[in-house]
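Notes, p. 3: input format for complexes.
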Amino acid sequence: MSFRPAPAHIGVLTSGGDAPGMNAAIRAVVRTARFNNLEVSGIYGGYEGLIKNEVRKLNVRDVSNIIQRGGTMLRSARSAAFRTTEGRTVAKATMDRHGMDALIVIGGDGSFAGAAIFQAEHGIPVIGIPGTIDNDLPGTDATIGFDTATNTAMEAVDRIRDTASSHDRLFFVEVMGRTCGAIALHCGIAAGAEYIMVPERPQGIDELITALENTERSKSSVIVIVAEGDEEGGAYEVARKVKARYDHYDTRVSVLGHVQRGGNPSVADRVLASLTGVAAVERLLSGGSAEMVGQANGKLVFIPFRSLLDQSQALDGELLRILGILSI
Ligand code: ATP
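Output follows (328 residues plus adenosine-5'-triphosphate):
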């Protein structure tokens, strides 16, 4: 860490897809900043709000009664303009106009890619907080929103199982995850799914059909969880391909969709958001920048953006292995 004056006024924004627990992180950032006598401003609508000057000072009471709410009180957005040098220059001018001298970005890998460039171009200290339901960020065991989203998906699959087993049905349930199968894998284990299809492990329809054929015929229902980004397509496409060649079951498809993003955050997400929110402000105060704060093996960790963006989060091999054992 190089020497620079401690920040006096922190800006905070949420970016990319919203995730349950982002509000808890905003609350932690605002209260920790005020606890340390720093000014703190909320930037509304992610990087786009920074470009469009959607900024408001926040105080401790402005973040009352939000810890339990899903979504983000600061709203989120994707900003094409921030991907350009000109857009980021306007964003820096907004920071200067309000006197903001440091930034906390709550979002996913895209948001941190933008933060890293902004920091490099304009020398603004930036700390990232992992807020995404996907759990696709290396270095942290979990991201804020993943636990809630996975619980929501699991509860939906539990309900689907009730109806599936009443009718000898094969259900294909699509969960979120364009590039990462973590929700599918964890939900699959927790809901006792027979099979999962994830983008990290392209398996093809042949392997799925072999698995279905090997599945105990006495099973009254079979559930296949399909991550939306699976190579064979989403759940409808996988179901269509299976149905064309394997007709033993009455087949149904359910796409869970955005229901997985909403809802009150779980205990785990609120605690992770609170811990990382406090740590982000404290890290800025001690000179840190261009890092994401996460948690690994129960300890806070700070992962440089550059190493974060070079890697991807691998799926948990042990969970993959046990799924094959437990689904017989
Ligand atoms: P999620 O994982 O929930 O999708 P994310 O942070 O990965 O969240 P993105 O849509 O990839 O979501 O990125 C959010 C925003 O970050 C983009 O709309 C853009 O403004 C900014 N951003 C992403 N990549 C870059 C980049 N290479 N340069 C500048 N800005 C970027």
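The chain has two domains: 9-145+265-310, 147-261.
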